[in-house]
User: Fold this.
Amino acid sequence: MLLKELSEAIGVSGNEEKVRKIIEEYVKPHVDKVSVDSIGNLIAFKQGDGSYSLKVMLAAHMDEIGLMVTYINEKGYLHFRPVGGVDERILPGKRVLVGDKAIPGVIGLKPIHLLREEERSQVAPVESLVIDIGASDKSSAEKMVKVGDYATFDVAFQELGARRVKGKAFDDRAGCAVLAELVKERYPFDLYAVFTVQEEVGLRGAKVAAYAIEPDAAFSIEGTVADDLPKEKDVSPTARLGHGPAITIMDRTFVAFHPLVRLLVETAEAEGIPYQFKQPLVGGTDSGAIHLTKKGVPSATVAVPCRYIHSPASILSLDDFENTIRLMEAALKRLKPEHLRVE
Assistant:
């Protein structure tokens, strides 16, 4: 299963090589050309059937949040800093894999028995945490890892009940797996499927790719927040598991192009595909960089809802995942030049 392979691959922002290799091998038989640009984006090109002279870019980012080793102290402990939006609350006690050799380690924190009263109600700052790889001193640690090495959470992919799965980095390996399926079809226009780098640290890969491609339209395929746990107050869940792909109207980085949103909604209703709207103003995606490129690019975002996003393990619905593929494939086949005109 491609989603499993991608979830378990290591690919913190700036270190996406292993993820890129898996995707390249998977999509190569289904596209006309595969290339890697100067920043590390994987670009799969598929020529259209000649119906329209359009260039459409689909983007899904390969990178995940993680950690980077910044210092090794005399006792062999690894000090680190977050790469991307890591929630400090979830770090203590987590298992990690460090460096190219995937050295196992545990994020250490002073045990609860030794905490002062005021410390028990506080989130431990990253500066007070270390990664313990079992080294006896600095010299032995440096034989296994080095400053600048990345660390990722050590989490295995697992199938749960009700067609749900648990795994690491569904943001955005879920989107990558969706995009890898979409390139198997041929569309009425030239398609550029871009598996981007460094989204979690500033949408960097998408900015470079869109500048080079100059697409007429773009869609970002994402894994997004499913905040549908029970709450004391009746508030929006952002998105819900099992209720279909989440369509963005607006987030912190862009306002979706209304005709493309309408295309997605009309397609879902015509095809009997469940869908939902993501709560506005939450998060950001590659569309935030793409839509501002050069003269501007009409853009939209569709996402697979994921619980516990930006944590070591997330949960998604395989129904939502498969329906995202169905929706995007059907919408792309319906896409016409008139959908790109400003109303």
Q: What stands out?
A: The CA atoms of residues 205 and 319 lie 29 Å apart. The chain has a mean pLDDT of 93. The radius of gyration is 21 Å.
